[in-house]
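I would like you to sit down with the record closing this message with an eye to the fold:
=====
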Amino acid sequence: MTSNQHPVSRLYFLDWVRILAFFVLILYHVGMYYVTWDWHVKSPFAGTGPEPFMQLSSPWRLGLLFFIAGAGASLMLARQGPSAFLRRRSSRLLLPLLFGMLVIVPPQPYLEVVEKLGYGDGYGTFMRLYLAGYNGFCREDCLVLPTWNHLWFVAYLWVYAVLLAGCVALCGSRFDRLAARAGTLLRGWRIIAIPAALLALARVLLVEHFPTTHALVDDWYNHAMCLAPFLLGALVARVPGFWARLEPVRWQALGIAATGWALLRIWDAAPDGVLAPQAVALLRPAMYAVYALLAWSAMVAACGFARRHLDRDGPARCYLNEAVFPVYIVHQTLIVTMAHSLQPMRLAPGVEAVVLVVLTLTLSFGVFELVRRVRLLRPLFGLAPRWARPVVARPVTAVPGEVAIR
C-alpha cells in the first residue's frame, strides 16, 4: 500500500530494472580491469579504448538502483511503519555488510597490494593486518583497512533507509502530502527537467570540491547524486499513476541521454589547447549539467521502457529477484581474483573479458545456489529465512537484499 487509501499492484517492471542494472554492474566491473581508471587490479593491456563504452552506463547506473530502492523502501514503510522497517532493513543489510567485509571483500585489497606494492607475506599475514586496521599500505594514498569496497552501496543504502524512516516518522501524513505535491509537479516534460536541474546544481556545486570516496562521512557529492534519487523514488512511489507517466517520455529521455553521452565524449576527446582557458572555464559547468541531464534521462528511459515491455511476472523474475543480491555481494571478488589469476596466461583482452564475464556469472550463481539451500548462510547474503519466504507475492516491489517487500 502506498498509503491507507491507495492500493498498488506489484511493480514487476521495477524488479526487472533492478535485475538488469545489477547485470550491467557486472559488465562494468569487468571493464574496470581494462581501463586506465584506478582499480584494485589492472590488465597489462589496460587502455583508454573501452572508456567511452564504460561511460554509457557510469552516469546513471547506481542512481537508478538508489531510485528503485527508495521506491521500495517507501512502500515498505507505508506497510510496516518505521520501527519494523528499520529492524528488517538492519538485519537484511548490516549482517551481509559485516560478513562481506570480513570474508568476501579481503581478497580484493590483498591482491591490490600484491600488484601495486609487491606485497609477498601471504594472505594469512595480510588478514592479521587487515583486521588490525593497518594503514601502512601506501603509494599515492594509503589503503584504508578494513574496507567495504563495492559493498559501500549496502552501507549507504542502510543509512538512507534510516534517514527515510526518520523523515517519515517525523512528518507523518505530511510526507504523503509532500509526495502528492511532487506528483502534481512531475508531469510531462517536467519529469525530466526538474530532477535533472536539481542533480545538475548538485554536480556543479560539489563535484570539484568533494571527490567520490565511498567513505560515507566525507562523500558529499556522491551522497547528492545517490540520496537525491533515493528520496525522489520514495516520494513518487506514493503517487498513484506516476509510473505510467514515464512511458510517453521514454523515447525523448533516451534521445536526451544519448545526445548527452555524445557531447561528453566530444568534450573529453578535445585536445588540450583547442579551446581557450576562458572558454573551458565557462563550458565546464555546462558539461557538468549535461552529465546530470544524461543520468536522470537514462533513469527515466529505463523505467519507461521497462514499464512498457517488462511489467510481467514469471519464474525467471522470481528466481533472479532472489539471486541478484547474493550475486552482487560476491561478483567483484570473483572478478578481481580471476583477473589476477589469468594474467600469466596472456589471453587476448577481448577473449579474456568474455571469459571473466562468463565465469563471474556462472560462479556467482553457483554461490547463490549453495546459499539459498543452506539455512545458516541465507542471512549472511541478505536472503530471508526459509520460513519467512511468502508463497504468494505481495502487491509491492522489491529492493536490493529483498526477495519481496512484505
Observations:
- The chain has one domain: 12-105+148-388.
- DSSP finds 14 helices and no strands in the chain.
- The chain has a mean pLDDT of 92.
- The first helix runs from residue 12 to 32.
